[in-house]
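Q: Can I see a sequence and its folded structure?
A: Here is a first one.
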Amino acid sequence: TSLIVGIFDRATGRLLGGSGLHACRGDAINWSIPAMMIGYWLAKEHEGKGYVAEAVGLLTHVAFDDLGAKRLEIRCDADNARSAAVMVRWAAARRCGNARRSRDRSRGRP
């Protein structure tokens, strides 16, 4: 089971790549946890323009806020520096967001 989305140029509607939420292991998302993995690809000529980072951000919100994910992973080819950079930025943003939420909860805020 996967949720597949296209990455399109807003101005032209041209397909630039794709992304989605996938099972971390096996063929189906484990809904008892629930755990998911973000995957993505982009045509080479569109790399470095923020398209994948935007898609990953949107899918992160869908996974956690709409689908109730408890665990979310990104895997990438370690030899693909741009892909690895997206993953590193995403992980850093998640850690900061989790720390901020924890601090807010300890102060009695939602």
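Q: Show me another, different protein.
A: A second, unrelated one:
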Amino acid sequence: NVAAGALHAGEKLTPSAVSQVLATRTRSVQSHATAQRWFALGRAYSISGDPEKSRVAFARGLLAAPADGVVWAAYARALKRAGRAAAAAAARAHSVDRARHDPRALDLRRN
């Protein structure tokens, strides 16, 4: 999907295009909920500026893959952006325990 690629690349999209990406990601999760699909939806919400919906999507991803350190890092970031500093610190610690050297987790923990 061109719009999804543009959104994840940090390009500016129209509100209509952002809505299209979110709708596509939501349908994907509804058709077959996997940790990877929840992660993609959480990331799309994060990029679109909705930290609370991002947090919820990452939390659901963790239900499917509780040992995934990258998802823990993304969840920690979403918690921080949603103003939940203590929970973010705990999630970040889980990420470090599960993906200490994974470059994707390291990048998420930096922000």
